[in-house]
Amino acid sequence: MTNLTPKDIEDFWIRVYLNPKLDFRTACANRSYRDLNRTIHGMAKNQSKEKYQKISKVLIGVSDELINMDFNDQISFDISHELKCNELIKAFKTNYGAIDFTIGQAQKWINMNLKYLFALGESRVPGITKNYIFFHIPIDNIIQDLLLHKSKISRIPVAWSRMNNYDMYINYQREVRRVYAEITPMDVEFRLFNEVLEI
Question: Per the count of CB atoms within 10 A, which of 49, 60, 114, 153 is most buried?
Answer without folding.
Answer: 114
